[in-house]
Write a structure and sequence with these properties.
This protein is α/β, with parallel strands linked by helices. The protein has helices at about 15-25, 45, 65-75, 90-100, 110-115, 120-130, 170-185, 245-260; strands at about 5-10, 30-35, 50-55, 80, 105, 150-155, 165, 190-195, 200-210, 215-225, 230-235, 265-270, 280-285. A hairpin with a 2-residue loop joins strand 10 and strand 11. The longest helix is centred in the last third of the chain and has 17 residues, at about 245-260. The chain is globular and about 60 Å long.
Length: about 290
């Protein structure tokens, strides 16, 4: 299959779709927008070269329908798909469907997406690659010495399925609540525990990797100003990171990318303790919402 991309279907809407369209235009690549009935007059539709309708209004029947997205791609003659962020951007099955249809997937390999889909399995992979990780604690075997701790959903994100537990008598209810929330939000009730890092900072490292083993860590973002585990303000570089720590963070991020055969743009997230130690949090296997930072 030719690696020359002539037309890209943008499987998204809004600002990220507009950015992809603009980038493609600068490269001389044609673009195909998709839209639900409610978004027929949206800016990203007008700015693309071609637009395809996704009948309906709800995301489940439009932007989350791999079948309809690929039907538009075939009808428009697109030879690549850019998922943007959100929707199906971190869906390994959609990535496989795109490549299975003979199209180029502009993103990491489906195997890399799947590998990072479970926080429990991701931590094991990172530990094997010498990336610092917090120890995983089995909720059934936690001892009094393990508190305070954090209960987390294995398939989680955005703070859902997460509970801070400071005393043994709070653990059972916290685990039950986290499981219910994880099942509702992600369809997977699996949870685990890890030590709670008090007053830790949230630091992200932007990476870009090619298909020949090259990985570049482009520096870190400070993401600690949050509300309900949602980032509000980000800053680059982080005021808490000096040259030596930056080098260590970037090395760890590059090792994380190599461990899963990553390609494309992505983000490796870490928690930075007040004493300067840092620990792997997760990999966002997509273009980050805040990539312009």
């Amino acid at each position: 299959m030719s690696l020359m991309i002539k037309s890209v279907l943008v499987a998204n809407r809004g600002e990220i779709a507009r950015r992809v369209v603009r980038a493609c235009r600068g490269l001389g690549i044609a673009t195909v927008a998709v839209h639900s009935d409610a978004d027929a007059d949206a800016p990203h539709v007008r700015e693309a070269d071609v637009a395809g309708r996704l009948p309906g209004a709800a995301p489940a029947e439009t932007y989350l329908s791999a079948e309809r997205l690929l039907a538009v791609a075939r009808a428009a003659g697109a030879d690549a798909v850019h998922p943007g962020y959100g929707f199906l951007a971190e869906n390994a099955e959609f990535a496989r469907a795109v490549t299975g249809a003979g199209l180029t997937w502009i993103g990491p390999p489906p195997e890399a997406i799947a590998a990072m889909g479970s926080k429990i399995e991701a931590k094991k992979l990172m530990a094997a690659a010498d990336v610092p990780v917090l120890p995983e604690l089995d909720p059934a075997r936690v001892t009094a010495a393990d508190f305070p701790l954090l209960v987390k959903a294995s398939a989680g994100g955005g703070g859902r399925g997460m509970r801070v537990v400071r005393a043994p008598d709070e653990l059972a209810d916290a685990v039950a609540g986290a499981r219910r929330e994880a099942e509702s939000a992600f369809g997977d009730p699996t949870v685990f525990c890890e030590p709670l890092l008090e007053n830790a900072r949230h630091i992200e490292v932007q990476i870009v990797a090619d298909a020949h083993g090259g990985v570049w860590a482009l520096g870190e973002r400070e993401c600690s100003i949050q509300r309900r585990h949602q980032k509000i303000v980000e800053e680059a570089p982080s005021p808490a990171v000096g040259p030596e720590l930056r080098a260590a963070l970037c090395d760890a991020a590059a090792n994380a990318a190599r461990a899963i055969g990553y390609t494309g743009a992505g983000t490796v997230e870490f928690m930075l303790a007040p004493d300067g130690r840092f620990f792997f949090l997760e990999v966002n296997t997509r273009l980050q919402v805040e990539h312009p930072v």
